[in-house]
Amino acid sequence: MKILVCISHVPDTTSKINFINGDTEFDTNGVQYVINPNDEFGLTRAIWFKEQQGANVTVVNVGGADAEATLRKALAIGADEAIRVNANPTDGFFVAKQLAEVVKQGAYDLVIAGKESLDYNGGMVPGMLAALTGADFVNSCIGLDVNGTAAKVVREIDGGKETISANLPLVIGGQKGIVEEKDLRIPNMRGIMTARTKVLTVLEPVAADNNTKAVKFEKPAAKSAVKLVSPDNLDELINLLHNEAKVI
Questions:
Q1: pLDDT per residue over 199-212, tens digit each?
Q2: Which of 114, 124, 173, 227 could cross-link with 139 by S-S, CB 3.0 to 4.6 Å?
Q3: Looking at the DSSP assignment, which residues form a beta bridge with residue 56?
Q4: Cβ atoms within 10 Å of 153's Cβ, excluding its own
Q5: Given pLDDT bands bounded at 50, 70 and 90, which one contains residue 246?
Q6: How far apart are CA 130 and CA 150, in angstroms?
Q7: Could you give the 3-state DSSP secondary structure of residue 239?
Q8: Alpha-carbon distance 118 to 176, whole Å?
C-alpha cells in the first residue's frame, strides 16, 4: 500500500502573530514553524501502517524551501521519502491542484490529510483533492483500518461517531483520535540521522489559478479592563450586569 501524507508547515501556537503590508500578509519574522497538528496525527497513523502492514509512506508539502525542515522532521519520524512542490500555498484550490498532480503521478492508494490547517483553518483542501483525483473522501476521521483494498473509517459527527466502509483509493481528512496524543512520536537521534539521507524531491508547480486571496487580516479586539465591585455594593453590581454586560 502506498500512502501519501499531506503536511502543512504552520506557525507554532506559542508564536506572536503580526501582519505586514497594510495587514494583507502574515509576518514570518521570528516565527517558529511546526508540522500541522492534524497532519501529525495522520502521519503517525501512516507510520503504524508501515510498521504493521509494510506500507510505503511519502510526505508532501506545497511551499518554499523553509518548509524542508518540517519535511525532514516527518522523515525522522519514519516517512520513507518526501516531496516539496516549490510554490507559495496562497489558495486552497491551488494547493489541491498541486497535490492532485502528485497523487496521480505517484498512484497512491491512500491519501491522509489533516481536516484543516492550524493557520487558516480553511478545511477545503482534502475535499477538493478527492474531487480532483476521483477518490472517495471521508472527513473528520478519528479511526482508520485498511484490509487489502477495503477500508473502515470512523468519523466524528455531531453528538457521536459514524462508521463508514470505503474502497481504495481513498482521501481522508484526519484529526486527533485517528491516533491519540500520547501516541505521537518524537524523532530520536537515529531517525534524525537517517532522515538526512532519505530522498526529498522538489517539483515545480503545475499551472493552476488562485481563485481566492486574502484582502485583510485583523486581530481580535483587546479585552476591556476588569471592573472590580465591592462585595458590599450589590446595587452597583446588579446595575453593571443589567446595563453594561446585559446578562440579566
A1: 999 999 999 988 88
A2: 173
A3: 2
A4: 23
A5: confident
A6: 17
A7: helix
A8: 13
